[in-house]
Amino acid sequence: MSNRPFIVGNWKMNGNRAMLAEARAIDRGAARCPGVRVGIAPPFTLVNTMADAVQAALIGAQDCHAEASGAFTGDISAAMLADAGAQFVIVGHSERRALHGENDAAVKAKAEAALAAGLEVIVCVGETEAERDAGKAEKVVCKQLDGSLPQGEGVAARVTVAYEPVWAIGTGRVPSVEDVGAMHRAIRARLSAIYGEDGAGVQILYGGSVNAKNAEELLGADEVGGALVGGASLTADSFLAIVLAAAGPGAE
Ligand code: PGA
Fold first, then answer.
1. Ligand 1 contact, 174 CB (< 6 A)
2. Is 156 close to ligand 1, i.e. is its CB under 6 Å away?
3. Closest Cα to atom 6, ligand 1: which residue?
4. Distance CA 12, CA 148 (A)
5. For residue range 189-242, what is the model confidence (pLDDT) as tens digits?
6. CB of 166 closer than 8 Å to CB of 126
7. Rounded (5°) CA angle 226-248-28
8. Cβ 164 vs Cβ 228: under 8 Å
9. What SS3 state is found at 239?
10. What does the alpha-carbon distance between residue 232 and residue 12 come to, in Å, rounded to a whole number?
């Protein structure tokens, strides 16, 4: 765990070798902002090449299988990601939960596999719009934390939580700073209940339509330790603007 803000780009199913130039430019920007941890999670096909191409940025993946190896056609294990040069993996993204039917238990198994392979893990949680409208957002997110977070001695130091309201992902809509702060405080309280003292050190990222314009405000909300960025992470220009917002005044 680090106290530095953690800004992670989730490239989703975007990116080819031509885009390594963007990753290199992001990496150069990351080197100029040592006060910020910068991560990029490209598609599997680019993890190895990108890990070799960068120095300052951390490279991760967007998913992994819960088993280390075996007859799982089309899947990639955490051990393979570590072997390819990945340092972290995102698990439980709402697109995985919704489109691949991943429930909390599956997410937890993946998170535990990631830790066992020596990776850091970013566990995503977040409510749907209907759940927020019904006043259940905190309850839903706390239940996801209870079911998805890996357990065990010393585990919290390698876990990051990303709070991503499903309705804010890719929509251009973001919660108010007050709502972000309230949810992040609720997540912090739950982390303390789950991990005891170690829960205080877990970074909590906000994700969902973060861009150069809103980053400073969102990163200033209570208990926000960084951002998980989708669309705005695909070019160095837009992503580095968010990194700079995290670096704070004086950075350029
Ligand atoms: P977005 O995606 O920044 O494009 O909303 C965030 C995410 O899904 O991680």
1. no
2. no
3. 230
4. 21
5. 999 999 999 999 999 999 999 999 999 999 999 999 999 999 999 999 999 999
6. yes
7. 80
8. yes
9. helix
10. 12
Any idea which of 112-116, 146-150, 233-237, 246-250 has the lowest mean pLDDT? Answer: 246-250
Q: Which of 66, 75, 52, 6 is nearest to 226 (CA)?
A: 6
Q: Single out the residue of 32, 99, 89, 27 nearest to residue 63, CA to CA.
A: 89
* Count of residues making up the chain: 252
Residue 29 is which amino acid? G
Distance of CA 63 to CAs 23, 41, 167, 240, Å?
19, 9, 21, 24
Domain ranges across the chain? 6-247
Distance of CA 123 from the midpoint of ligand 1 (Å): 14
> 209 CB less than 6 Å from ligand 1?
yes
Which of 93, 120, 138, 223 is catalytic? The answer is 93
How do beta strands 159-163 and 58-61 pair? unpaired
Quickly tell me which residue has 């950075």 as its tokens: 251
Question: Cα 53 to the chain's mean position, in Å?
Answer: 21
3 Cα to the center of ligand 1, angstroms:
23
The pair of three-digit structure tokens given for residue 188, joined into one six-digit string: 């912090």
Q: Residues 127, 131, 138, 164: which is the catalytic one?
A: 164
Identify whether 217 is a catalytic site residue.
no
In words, the CATH class of domain 6-247 is: alpha beta
Span 159-169, pLDDT tens digits: 999 999 999 99
Substitution site in 209, 218, 242 for ligand 1 pocket (most atoms within 8 Å of beta carbon): 209
Q: What is the pTM of this model?
A: 0.97
